[in-house]
Design brief:
With about 270 residues, the protein is α/β, with parallel strands linked by helices. The protein contains 11 helices and 7 strands. Helix 5 runs antiparallel to helix 6. A hairpin with a 2-residue loop joins strand 1 and strand 2. It has one domain. One of its GO terms (biological process) is potassium ion transport.
Length: about 270
């Protein structure tokens, strides 16, 4: 699986890091997340080299699947109901999540290659260093917050004695899962950019087919990561620069062109 990462400055020293995942033709089908406790227990294995890690990931994926289904149920609740109010509260809490955390969570654990698109005027070594820095920083921060969230889970279970839904528990449970996924994504990104730092490739996206032979192109696209400067991204940035970074119109154009989430990009712009 290949992750396409788009990197560009949005305001001063603030850079945007956003990704879309593209499956490669050779990727095998991923295992289906168990939908019931019976199916979960049937897939738990103690014969793997690392049974605790594999079983923990299976359990986390199972809980995350249940949480996603529950969230979809809250989203469909009629306006004005208690479930609808909980959904609105959840949206406000999600709006406070840092964009870097959303970026790391969007990187799946089975990604094997990274294609980095960045403005043509930037130095590729600078882009590589910024990616390595944010990935390393993410592993430290989200490991710390993950352990902190896990330590709060036993405390929030005490609220189950109340007749109301245990919102603090589910809040901490969601943050635990969120930091776990962000930790996995940051570690995977750091491993890819570190392994490919000596053998990374920089190509011009518009001339890639005319510059490389078919054999070289296959080798290039199968490498750990590819640096791809974009003249189109550079032109969009140059047209949208104002006195306070990129304008909202320019950010909207970039998001439409490269299929990015405008809300996440705006968070990068507004982060101090």
């Amino acid at each position: 699986m290949r992750a396409k990462v788009v990197v560009f400055p949005v305001r001063g020293r603030n850079w945007c890091f956003s990704t879309t995942v593209q499956p490669l033709p050779s990727d095998s089908a991923t295992s289906v997340t168990p939908s019931s406790l019976k199916e979960l227990f049937s897939k738990i294995s103690f014969s793997n080299p690392k049974p605790f890690v594999s079983n923990a990931e299976l359990l986390i994926d199972f809980v995350a699947n249940k949480m996603n289904k529950g969230w979809m149920g809250l989203e469909k609740a009629p306006r004005g109901t208690f479930k609808n109010k909980i959904h609105g509260l959840g949206l406000r809490l999600l709006a406070r999540v840092k964009p870097s955390e959303m970026f790391f969570k969007s990187i799946p654990k089975d990604v094997t290659a990274v294609e980095v698109t960045y403005p043509a005027s930037l130095n590729p070594r600078l882009v590589r260093r910024r990616l390595q820095h944010i990935a390393l920083r993410g592993t430290v921060i989200h490991r710390r917050y993950f352990y902190g969230s896990v330590s709060l889970l036993p405390l929030t279970t005490a609220f189950t004695v109340l007749p109301l839904p245990n919102i603090p528990f589910f809040r901490v449970l969601f943050r635990t899962y969120s930091h776990w996924r962000a930790l996995q994504g940051s570690e995977q990104l750091l491993q890819l950019v570190s392994d490919g730092s000596q053998n990374s490739n920089s190509v011009e996206g518009d001339d890639i087919k005319s510059t490389f032979s078919e054999h070289d192109l296959k080798r290039l696209l199968s490498s750990a990561w590819v640096l791809q400067p974009s003249k189109e991204l550079e032109e969009l940035i140059q047209r949208g620069i104002d006195g306070d970074g990129l304008s909202k119109t320019a950010i909207s154009d970039i998001c439409n062109t490269f299929d990015l989430n405008p809300n996440d990009v705006l968070k990068y712009r507004n982060t101090m």
